[in-house]
Amino acid sequence: MTSKLSSDNERVSIVSIVDKYSPLHEFKCILRGKGHSTEKCTNATLEEYSESHHRRFSAAVFHCDVEQSEEPDTVSLVADGQQTPANILPIISESHPKRTFTVCVSPLHSRYSKAYQLVEMVEVNLLLGADHFFFYNYSTNWNVDAVLNHYQSHGLATVLQWPLPAVLQDDNQTEPIHYYGQIAMLNDCLKRNHGASRHVIFHDLDELIIPNSHKSWKDLLNSLPANMSAYMFRSSYFHLEWPDVESNSKLVNKIAKRYKANSFLKQYREERVFSPNTRSKYLVDPLQVQSVGIHRVWAFRDRGRQYFVPPNVALVHHYREGILERQNSRLKDNSTLKFIDALNQIEETWKLLPHIPLGPIT
């Protein structure tokens, strides 16, 4: 759970995961001042996020009202009738943005061990303008842990452990919560970056948001309509089963192949571009967005607006493996070659991790 004080200091929001089968329906918030000098109890209002996919457990947010004269430091969420709180959460307050572009990455799970993919994603995004990354670790292998520790030690990453007791088998379905609590994770990351980052980008490990002609996200945004709360990017598949493109570049032939940098090896994508809000990913102003989903923004603050970026301007490159859904025509797309300098950084990173397997580890 994450607790966040709103910009107007009128309420604390707690991102949570709730059990729809639980007999507990009424909750209260215990708000404490610094050093527990003061304590106040208020009612908690529950708001369930969209996209629960009819599972037993769903992402939700509890809202606790705060008087403007108060500056709470911690909060506890307790069921009505309970006396002793089982949690004490620090409250993250608004601050002046210290980052321009922060990337929130979907949960790492299933003993994730594709360290090569992780390094590629980080290094390409750094070249695009990323300042920091948030990773939510449900289950990773030791080689990925080493890479995460490397980026964390350099101040480039925040790694949050994401233990989900809800992700257990039950009598009715194998996943009582959708995709390792992704909706809770996305909204947790959104709220953590309220006031801390000017822009927040959301995508998966096997995706990149690539401008077609601009050389950075900053340049891209400067070319788009201003004052938007969210910029939505449509998606297309780059199938990993398709052959690598032969290149005249020594960097591609040497480094990309050595370190499995698929964004430089796979230069063909499906001609099909998914429609808006279907597999789309997005870049938002976190102060203007209330809640997000996997492929869309669900709610804005103060009549916020979104803009769908034309796919010939920027596109989500989804480097997808698995059986092809259907035989789709393909076309060449070498827009990532503008960022070929990332290959040098990929190589330098791996030189600092000489005994770490690229993965996957089976």
Structure explained in plain terms:
It is an enzyme of class 2 (transferase). Belongs to the glycosyltransferase 92 family. Its EC number is 2.4.1.-. It is found in: Membrane. With 362 residues, the protein is of the alpha/beta class. The chain contains seven helices and 21 strands. The protein has helices spanning 115-128, 142-153, 182-192, 217-223, 250-258, 262-265, 342-351; strands at residues 2-5, 11-19, 27-32, 39-48, 57-65, 74-79, 89-92, 99-105, 132-137, 157-161, 197-203, 207-211, 230-233, 235-239, 268-270, 281-284, 289-292, 297-300, 306-309, 314-320, 330-332. The strands form five sheets. It has a seven-stranded mixed beta barrel. Strand 8 (99-105), helix 1 (115-128) and strand 9 (132-137) form a beta-alpha-beta unit. Helix 1 crosses helix 7 (342-351) and helix 5 crosses helix 7 (342-351). It is globular.
Short description:
With 362 residues, the chain is of the alpha/beta class. Helices cover 19% and strands 32% of the residues.
List keywords for this structure.
7 helices; 2 domains; about 350 residues; globular; Spore Coat Polysaccharide Biosynthesis Protein SpsA, Chain A; about 20% helix; Immunoglobulin-like
